[in-house]
Amino acid sequence: IVDNSQYHSYATIQNYLNTFKSNYPSLVPDVGVAPHKTHDNRDVSYITLSTNGVSSTKQAIFIECGIHAREWISPAVCLYFIDRLLATYNSDSTATALLNQFDWVIIPEANPDGYEYTRSSTSNRLWRKNRRRFTTGNCNGYYGVDLNRNFDAMWGTTGVSSSCTSDTYPGTGAFSEPESRNIRDKVNEIKDRLSAFISIHSYSQMILTPYGFDSSKPSNTGHITAVSNAARDKLYNVHNKYFTVGTPGELLYHASGGSYDWSMVGAGVSFAVTYELRPAGSDWATGFRLPANQILPSGEEMWESISHIALNH
Ligand code: 0X9
Ligand code: ZN
């Protein structure tokens, strides 16, 4: 269904979700709108994939894409993954196992206001945050909260700036933003059967293991690292792209209030990772502008990597 030769608008992404539901009604019990409208009054959509219908009690995996506006490859990979899962169920043994063993709840575009802002020719391609508008005090006239600093996981402690003009401004409190509340609420609905949480960003070619907020690690860190190393190898085998595995503190910087940390410390999920997709390297100006001809290979390598995590975590 998905055209993987280009990046798509929010409207097109919404259309794809509805087309998935109408073309695969027996595998897509629910395409819906998360409870909180964005600041610019957009809906944040989710899709549930299940062989068991809406009242399924199967183990579930949650994937969140697009929380940072400029990281366009993230929603593109989410769409590729959904499309391939649905199209090859019952013909491909991996897809069949992924859907027979798990339900999937996926938010392909968690920050539609920011995303559309980066797509507008008159605005800023490198916008990262949401589009909250500040109207009082020092912040009057400025916009945006970093959604991956807004979750209730050591909120406001590391990797943040209290300046509302900063790209890492965490907001006025944990879950001050509708976009992070949407992820929270959808996760909480299924947390008793949620076995993995996957957050997809770009760029740097990494699989980040928990925690991001400081140097502490969950008690099952050895297991998470082993599964991530194997998922890294599966990814590498597709197109020879090497992803580094480690915690944010080891590979990047500490950062509090992230979604994957919250999924563990707040929702009790026992396995969570954050991907940083293509490209590697440190050229900030080009890193977020991954050419559209790399959507398909990114989708293909991530298919293998996520499949490994799902079937082995
Ligand atoms: O800084 C971030 O939010 C992520 N990197 S990005 O370049 N995509 O912005 C890393 C997030 C790692 N997770 C946490 N630190 N919780
Ligand atoms: Zn990001």
TrEMBL record:
Any GO BP: proteolysis
Keywords: Carboxypeptidase, Disulfide bond, Hydrolase, Metal-binding, Metalloprotease, Protease, Signal, Zinc
Species of origin: Patella caerulea
Listed name of the protein: Peptidase M14 domain-containing protein
Cellular component per GO, a single term: extracellular space
Positions of the Peptidase M14 domain: 6-313
Record flagged with keyword Metal-binding: yes
Organism taxonomic ancestry: Eukaryota, Metazoa, Spiralia, Lophotrochozoa, Mollusca
Keyword flag Coiled coil: no
An annotated Gene Ontology molecular function: metallocarboxypeptidase activity
Active site: E276
Family according to the record: Belongs to the peptidase M14 family.
Needed co-factor(s): Zn(2+)
